[in-house]
Amino acid sequence: MSTVRQVIYISKATYDFVATELNDIAKVAARNNKLRGITGALLYIDHCFIQVIEGDAKSISELLTKLEADSRHCEIRIISDRIEQSPHFADWSMGLILTPKEERKIVVGELRSAARATRAEKVGSSVMPMPHTLAMMQRLYETDSILQQARN
Domain 4-151 belongs to what architecture? Predict the structure, then answer.
């Protein structure tokens, strides 16, 4: 498989989302991303989004332009923009991740840390201060993949 551009960003919600709205966002994103060959995961916690999007460079750039114009969130901060050998969320055109209660405090702390770090960084650089959050997202994706295989 060819390489993919992976962008991870955080943003601030412009209002408090309820579960049904988040599910609707994930469904629409999954449908649209599938058409563009984009994969990824979306997490909403403490009025913040963290999203991982992966795909070819042109599709990711186009999606970032759309995301920047989306009024449901603001203060978008890219914390990582890099080339990966393969997508980390290959089977999800957009998976919605709900944070387990026991990990909530750690995730919120890492989001706040990432927000502070990206404010201090120059535009275009990559900051990765949230290893626990991304590992949790990856672990939930892998668990979902195992469950999907078991159901088939």
Answer: 2-Layer Sandwich (3.30)
